[in-house]
Write a structure and sequence with these properties.
The protein has six helices and twelve strands. The chain is α/β, with parallel strands linked by helices.
């Protein structure tokens, strides 16, 4: 199926993490997160990867295509649908200080910068992830507004604690089912990395139960297929 055919999409149906679109030529395109694949439902065969669709959704870098990991790299990019839903809830991130922990491609932090965040710290220990974050920052023109910590999440958070850093938005996207959700959240609370009116946003598998550490409270939860997004804030902050 040609690239020209891929552009002739007649209808789109959203279902969980997947987007199914039927083409003019009778083929079917299935989006799984950031990757589109092509199938021919007439023959019942899979035709392979055809296009990468991971982009900055809004703001000054809107529409720029981001570098993505190879299939062999253990990096799980934030799904565009989930990313868009998060920022629709946040609405305004202008001038905020942001932390993108377990950054992967850096897509979430870069989305925040594109929408007006003042600065973002990216933490990841994988060399491939650091290369992707650097490349995407350069591509979007945000290098001067970013700090990259090439280290595991826990030592990275401890380093920020020693620097007395605080953030308005903290994104945590640890590998699914690796017992890192509550461990990293506990450190965020203990180290007082969250500003008084800030939010912690965790992307995790629904089987992983988030337990709010002392001082923090769950504000909201949203489920998108096999991804659960949990929002937390300081318990003493009253939100109407």
């Amino acid at each position: 199926m040609s690239k020209k055919d891929a552009q002739k999409l007649q209808s789109v149906i959203f279902f969980s993490h997947d987007v199914v679109a039927t083409g003019e030529m009778g083929g079917i395109f299935l989006w799984r997160g950031a990757v589109a694949v092509a199938c021919d439902h007439r023959l019942g065969i899979f035709c392979g990867r055809i296009v990468n669709v991971m982009r900055v959704i809004a703001g000054s870098a809107k529409g720029l295509r981001l570098l993505t990991p190879k299939k062999t790299q253990p990096i799980r990019p934030a799904l565009d649908q989930v990313k868009e839903a998060i920022f629709n809830i946040l609405f305004d991130v202008q001038d905020l200080q942001v932390l993108d922990c377990f950054a992967g491609t850096g897509a979430v932090g870069i989305e925040a910068l594109s929408r007006g965040a003042a600065h973002c710290v990216f933490i990841d220990h994988l060399p491939a992830a650091i290369t992707l974050v650097r490349g995407n920052l350069e591509k979007c023109g945000f290098t001067a507004q970013a700090t990259i910590l090439a280290m595991p999440a826990i030592p990275g958070l401890q380093l920020l604690q020693r620097r007395h850093a605080q953030f308005d938005l903290i994104f945590l996207d640890p590998p699914y089912e690796k017992n890192l959700v509550n461990k990293s959240l506990d450190l965020v609370a203990h180290a007082s990395l969250l500003a008084p009116t800030g939010l912690v946003i965790i992307e995790h598998h629904p089987k992983e139960i988030v337990t709010a550490p002392p001082g923090l409270a769950i504000r909201d939860q949203r489920k998108y297929g096999q991804t659960l997004i949990t929002f937390l804030h300081w318990a003493k902050i009253c939100v109407e």
